[in-house]
Amino acid sequence: FHYLWRESWCGLIGEFCRVIGLSSALTFFGSDAEKWEELLLRQCHRKCVQFAPSFPSHRGTPPAVPIVLSLPSKKVNGLIPYVVEWAECDGFNRELREWIFALLLIVEKPLLPDVCAALRGLANLCKTLRNSLDIERLAEFSVQLIHLLVFFSSFASHGLPTIFSSM
C-alpha cells in the first residue's frame, strides 16, 4: 500500500511541476495581443509540442487540458477579448473556435466588465454570422452555436443571454 501511495504522490507532484512550467512559459507574453495570436494560432510553443498529435488541425499551441489549466485566471480574462477580436477580424477557424471553447470553460465568475463586453461582442458576431449563412451551412453553424449558447447560459446573472432573445 505504501508503495502505491508513494508512486501516486510522485506522479501528482510531477504533473504539478509540469503545469507550473507551462504556466511560466505561457504567461511570458504579458498583454501583447500579436504575440499571443502567434503562440495560440500560428506556432506551437516548444514546451507544448507533445500535445500537437491530439490536435492535428492546429498549427499553434493547442488548447490541451494541461495547457489551458496552466493559464492564470487573470490571463484568461485578458485572452478572451483577444480571441473575440481575432474572430471579428479573421473569422471562426477551427483553432480559434477550440480556444474560445477552452477559455469559456475556465473563465471565473463574476465576470470582469471587459470580459462581459467581449462575450457580448462574440454573441453579436455569432448572430451576424448566422444571419449571413445559406441553408446548407446554417445547420453546421447551428451545432457550433449550441456549444457557445451552453456556456453563455451559465452567465445568466450577468445579462448575457438577453442578447439571444432577438436571434
TrEMBL record:
GO CC annotation terms, alphabetical: nucleus; SMN complex
GO biological process, one term: spliceosomal snRNP assembly
Entry protein name: MOR2-PAG1_C domain-containing protein
Annotated organism of origin: Angiostrongylus costaricensis
Family from the record: Belongs to the gemin-2 family.
